[in-house]
Structure formats: structure tokens, C-alpha cells
Amino acid sequence: xxxxxxxxxxxxxxxxxxxxxxxxxxxxxxxxxxxxxxxxxxxxxxxxxxxxxxxxxxxxxxxxxxxxxxxxxxxxxxxxxxxxxxxxxxxxxxxxxxxxxxxxxxxxxxxxxxxxxxxxxxxxxxxxxxxxxxxxxxxxxxxxxxxxxxxxxxxxxxxxxxxxxxxxxxxxxxxxxxxxxxxxxx
Length: 186
Description:
The chain is of the alpha+beta class. It has one domain (50-185).
């Protein structure tokens, strides 16, 4: 009988402890949720400004998420009330994991800019795909792109990051997906 009472007491103590911890975590989540949302909104705004610095306003575009699984978010970019293009948040699979990028696409299908949001590629190799110098290869070009090693000889060729061809192809696929998606919005 004594062992049973001790077990009940320990279970009740453990339950109380877990309930208190859960309430504390729920309270912390309630406090931090708006702050996290605000930080995420600011990151999105900064990314949109990187890919289309001339845009004066951004509006969320509704789309079929099931039909477009690699598209995470889409925005209409406007300049002085006129549609200047679209900002498309894309997710692709690189060598080291998911690559998230914002791609600005003009109404004519040309790339306005590319900004890497999240990249988990090999440090010193695949991470070079986030360098603005490498990403600028896409600017003012249209698809289809061809990833090449060495030197680009045609207008649609993108020189792969040395020793990171998988990453280069993943970023290129993301840019292509954004262009195709934006083209369907017009």
C-alpha cells in the first residue's frame, strides 16, 4: 500500500511539473510569436528590396500551393502603382539540404535579382552560391539556363561554383521555377 501511495504521489508531482513547464512555454510562445512574425516580415521585405530595389510596394499573391510545391510565397512588386514584376520565395534541394531564395522576376520574364535566404551547403564551396557576384549571373537574363563549368560562352549559360555543381544546379532550378511561376501570373 505504501509503494502504491508513493507511486501516485510521484506521478502527481511529475504531472504537475510537466503542466507548469507547458504553461510557461505557452506563455513564452505567446510573448515571442508577434516578435518572430515581425522579424520574418522584415527579412522578407529586405529580400524583396534586394531582388527589386526600385519597387515601392509589395502585395501578397494567392496561388495554388499544391500545384506549386517549391513556391513558398509570392509577391506582386509595384512601382508607382504599376506592376513591375514578382518576388517569388522558392525552395530547392541542394547538396547539403534545402536552399531558400527570393527571386525577382520582371514582367518580361527577366530576372531582376536573386537573394539567398537560407543555405546549408558545404562551407567554402557550396556556400559561394550565396555570393552576390555569382548570383548576378542570372540578372537580366531569361530561362532556360544552362549550368556550365569553366566559362560561359552563351547568354543563357551560368558558370557553376567550382566543386559545387549540385548547388549551382539547385539554385538555377529555383530561379527557373520562379520565372515559370511568375510567367503564369501575368
